[in-house]
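User: I'm putting together a teaching handout on how multi-component assemblies are represented. Below are the sequence lines for each component of a complex, exactly as they appear in our records. Could you produce the 3D structure of the whole assembly as structure tokens, so the students can see both representations side by side? Please keep the chain order the same as the input.
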Amino acid sequence: MLARKTNPDLSRRNFLVAGVAAGGGMMIGWIPTAEAAVEKAPLVMPDAYIRIDRQGKVTITSPMIEMGQGTYTSLPMLVAEELDVDMASVSVAISPPSDKLYGNPLLGNVQVTGGSTSIRGFYLPLRKTGAAARAMLIAAAAETWGVDPTSLRTEPGFVVDDSAKRRLSYGELADRAAKVPVPSEVKLKDASQFRIIGTPAKRLDVSGKVDGSARYGIDTKMPNMKIATVSASPVFGGKLVSFDEAAAKKIPGVVQVVKLDNALAVVGDHYWAAKKGLEAASPVFDDGPHGSVSTADVVAALAKAAEKPGVVAKNEGNFETAISSVIEKVEATYEAPFLAHAAMEPMNCTVAVTGDGCDIWVGTQIPVWAQQAVAKTLNLKADQVRLHNHLLGGGFGRRLESDGIVQAALIAKQLDFPVKVVWSREEDIQHDMYRPYYYDRFSAGLDAQGMPVAWSHRIVGSSIIARWAPPLFKNGIDPDAVDGAADMPYAIENFHVEYVREEPPGIPTAFWRGVGPTHNVYVIESFVDELAAKAKKDPVEYRRALLQKNPRALHVLNRAAELSNWGQPLGPRQGRGVSVQQAFGTYMSQVAEVTVSQTGEVHVDRVYVVLDTGVVVNPDTVVAQVQSGVIFGISAVLWGEITLSKGRVQQSNFDDYRVMRIDEAPKIEVEIVKSAADPGGIGEPGTSGLAPAVLNAVYAATGVRLRKTPIDSKRLKEAS
Amino acid sequence: MIGFKVNGKEMSVDVPDDMPVLWVLRDVLGMTGTKFGCGIGQCGACTVHVDGEPRRACLTPASDVAGHDVTTIEGIGATPVGKAVQAAWLNLEVIQCGYCQSGQIMSASALIKSNPEPSDSDIDAGMTGNICRCGTYLRIRDAVKEAAKAVAAK
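Assistant: Of course. Below is the structure of the complete assembly, with chains in the same order as your input.
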């Protein structure tokens, strides 16, 4: 989940295409792939980005899926700004799977929503598409009136001819505009002319979310559809051995029992029958090779792997030479646990296998890959798999995987009717694909002033990229695993980062909110705090000294210190902690204030966040995403942990996989730095910067340095 | 057959007595606004009102609501409090993914109905049973207050 470059431009390999919309009006889209070059724009366009109908209604088919991050508002804002329409005349449609039409320019032109890339990837393409559509509407008006197009201007939804005091609406012009040549060059607005970008816009996805009418994948209803629920082997890699089919079928409403290699599904008239049927079937599994795995085994293997050098991700100066002559050497080891995603909408997928292929109703971050995975599983061509994407009831990286979709297809293949497969929350937690357990070793050398002149960071853990996008796993480096570490904000002369891939036995790993930086910012910002403490310097002062060549990072740090009254006294067992990060094209500093109770419970009282994410599209969404990311991060640092015993995940539901509730939520202040830089991503940094701010605050409050999450309150109790 | 009212309309369903109201609504009556989140009364996504009181539909057997009035997210907008809560939710842009918000709105409506001027701690106590993984809690607090004010002003 790495996206280095920002702002992909309309290069020679990218094409605007336009044509007549089905039912009248115009269509215009931006096709990102080289292959598109050889295709002529069809007369009737598929649902590419923008449709303007004869009433002037603008429909934007969003290339990226909405999962709460506000992309269904912010991407249309980009179009509306340059097209010159009010947001009130814009609506959003869900895109079908197509890399060609909807590929994310930051993610290899694959239709993936993730990694905080939507705004970064589409900032220019969608604006240019909007600007081209506007130019075509102007050209159509100029043709109609027989005037020079440069004499015309637009007002929201209209082309205006001031000299003749006349105007035509976009709706009136749309048919004609569809036939106008697509401009090869378009001029974009200067930021000073923006009237939509940078101004809070009302979300376009929420009206159906207050009255129950919004449809998530789990709300799919099809004629003759039945409901299934499933139990997979509690040990990863285990196989189904036996089950009591007769007992399941005795449950009223049970329709069928479906065997998979590693799981049993019971199909019923409703979920209740399926659930009771599955309990009655009491499936028995063979544990397979991983039936004895425990968390301790995983950690022991990581610790062992951490003893050997890894593959070098970044090397500057000479660490070995520098460390041999330093005044003081500091070493530390950090651990980060497996984490489940626990999105509110449990995993589900509805599938109908028909004579000519199959239909899939699901909410997914990877519609094309899911389509391809089902095609492969069912031996179909990709275009025989019709995937209907939905609003996501939370993604957080979980819906970047197609495991549940493939499983549902395997179940549906055995049925003569559509089936909605719904996982119980227990299945969702115990068969998640987990944020990897990471094990990090640091070694640093300080000079006479206590500043680091040598830095070595060895990252040990599972590679998600090697499984998820194998071509990006090059020379033994997982670019996600080192993201935020190899490119950390501080300048240190002798700098060495390496990666050791160590896969946990059988345990599936996957992206989790904040991806690479959630782990790396946690360990780096904790270790920098340790260095500051060793140097007996204030953590903010210490970081300032290391950021002299990084003005954007320095600025957010300074503002966060001011906003949080850094240095002002707090009560007993209270403390402030700071973090700085540059990740996802965003600079962010967080200051957390915590209170540690006598029994060692940590309460996060306040979090101050200052961010510079370049040009801001929808400021209210930026604030919302930061609030969201911070709270997601607090759940993890205080309580988040998936553990294994005898190969089985020990947590199962919200009673033992604790997440933050409203009465525990801190006050959060967010300040956005005004910036004209390229837009950055904002879905993830709130989470990735939170844990170290809290852990450093706990240190300030108690003097206890925690090098493992979640926080072990027993250690903080002992300190009192 | 079990008979009860849903959003004022008489319904009659042929389901097992122990079948939770959540699945009666979603899978039998096709009313999918009420959400499945945990199945054990931990997350509140399935919150409905039974005779005006908030209940976890995932733990409420169908037989329990026989002869009673069930209100769901599809019907709460017809009540003055529910309408005010929906409006505040939209006005303050509470919602992100939105999956938990049916339950949040049902809990908030019940809270304001029983306590027309909830304090921060009343809101925390009244809403703590509803988990939101998008972390919209700060805006929920503000929106509950705004809705309560709107109701009081009527």
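A couple of points students might notice: Chain B has a mean pLDDT of 98. Residues 77-153 of chain B form a domain with the DNA polymerase; domain 1 fold (CATH 1.10.150.120).
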